[in-house]
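lol forgot to send this yesterday, sorry. struct tokens for the thing we talked abt
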């Protein structure tokens, strides 16, 4: 006789396991401890087997019957329902192992990026991507799902970040394809779907008179001596701000007048050599008695075991009256690129190489760290000499005149 909800509610445990049958092999097993578990008997390939359908009342009588009928249909088609369920579980485990978040974290672990940038990309993914599609299998993701991710970021006004996050998502999907976990990259279908990212430039002073005023302001900076030295060296070195802050004494050879930056600190992951002008060596020799016992040339104010904070030099520029729209620490690079070209007339490849940009020789090969070293030494000394002239000249401005001669 089929079971009823009333009979199930009234069923009480005894000192022996009970079986209340509903028909079609389905029964409720009641243990002496009071557990009530749905089971289904069936035969496959001549063997009697049991299939579990959950516990009562979490699984109602109606739901248990639906599960029984699904199992019977599988049997009618020659499929063992027990093995079918195991295959579904295995597929679920595999899908979870190939979720977007799992693949993304695997991809992140293989990135040879500077820690700050790696942390930034990880934070983007954790904050804007994983909560929405992180649990989805990479093979099932669609272009509209990625577009919704980008739209959420775009809607809060972070258009540039939206483009960068989707760019990272596209790289992760290409990694998923390469590792056999996806067949295509749906992010590639989103070209033009987001609002164009605004063109971004780092504010920089590039007119000679303005450069002179800035250098004089740096010399007169009333803040910490270490910060003033870093600001004085920033235009001479024109490296990226993070590379400057994290300079270590072990990388600097004052006798050889060289700063050798290891590959892991560089954006392009290639070692970089900065020839030191006489002026730069003089500043470093003045600074060495103060910070030479520490790891970093410019140690942090709170702990000498850490480099100067990311905002220290920016804050110093603001204290001197240079707002974000007029000058940035990164702007020293644009200053050097412009004036070395327009005023001092150095070859663009020398300048780009010293900026640690990807520069190739006529045969398409990447230059190494010592390429054109003699010429770059002369350029760096001429650049420091030019900065001295701009600092000292409060009235006369060198003409912006392009010459056909390249040094």
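and heres what i got for the seq, position by position
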């Amino acid at each position: 006789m089929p079971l009823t909800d009333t009979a199930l509610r009234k069923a009480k445990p005894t000192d022996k396991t009970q079986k209340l049958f509903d028909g079609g092999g389905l029964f409720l097993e009641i243990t002496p401890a009071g557990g009530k578990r749905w089971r289904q008997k069936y035969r496959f390939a001549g063997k009697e087997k049991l299939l579990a359908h959950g516990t009562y009342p979490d699984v109602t009588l109606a739901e248990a019957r639906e599960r029984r009928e699904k199992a019977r249909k599988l049997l009618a088609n020659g499929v063992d329902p027990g093995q079918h369920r195991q295959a579904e579980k295995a597929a679920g485990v595999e899908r979870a192992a190939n979720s977007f978040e799992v693949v993304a974290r695997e991809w992140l672990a293989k990135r040879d990026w500077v820690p700050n940038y790696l942390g930034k990309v990880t934070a983007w993914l954790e904050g804007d991507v994983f909560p929405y599609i992180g649990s989805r299998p990479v093979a099932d993701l669609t272009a509209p799902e990625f577009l919704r991710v980008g739209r959420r970021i775009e809607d809060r006004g972070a258009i540039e970040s939206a483009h960068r996050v989707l760019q990272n998502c596209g790289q992760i999907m290409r990694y998923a394809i390469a590792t056999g976990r996806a067949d295509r990259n749906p992010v590639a279908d989103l070209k033009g779907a987001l609002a164009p990212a605004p063109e971004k430039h780092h504010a920089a002073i590039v007119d000679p008179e303005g450069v002179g005023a800035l250098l004089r302001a740096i010399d007169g900076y009333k803040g910490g001596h270490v910060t003033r030295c870093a600001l004085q060296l920033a235009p001479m070195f024109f490296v990226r701000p993070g590379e400057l802050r994290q300079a270590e004494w072990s990388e600097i050879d004052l006798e050889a007048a060289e700063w050798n930056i290891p590959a892991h600190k560089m954006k392009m992951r290639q070692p970089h050599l900065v020839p030191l002008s006489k002026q730069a060596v003089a500043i470093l020799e003045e600074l060495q008695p103060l910070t030479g016992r520490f790891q970093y040339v410019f140690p942090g104010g709170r702990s000498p075991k850490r480099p100067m904070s990311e905002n220290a030099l920016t804050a110093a520029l603001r204290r001197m009256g240079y707002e974000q729209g007029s000058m940035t620490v990164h702007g020293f690079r644009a200053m050097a690129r412009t004036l070395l070209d327009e005023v001092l007339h150095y070859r663009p490849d020398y300048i780009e190489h010293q900026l640690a940009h990807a520069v190739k020789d006529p045969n398409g090969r990447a230059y190494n760290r010592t390429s054109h070293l003699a010429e770059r030494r002369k350029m760096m000394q001429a650049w420091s000499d030019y900065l001295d002239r701009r600092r000292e000249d409060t009235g006369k401005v060198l003409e912006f005149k392009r010459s056909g001669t390249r040094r």
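The chain has 16 helices and seven strands. anyway ping me if u want another try
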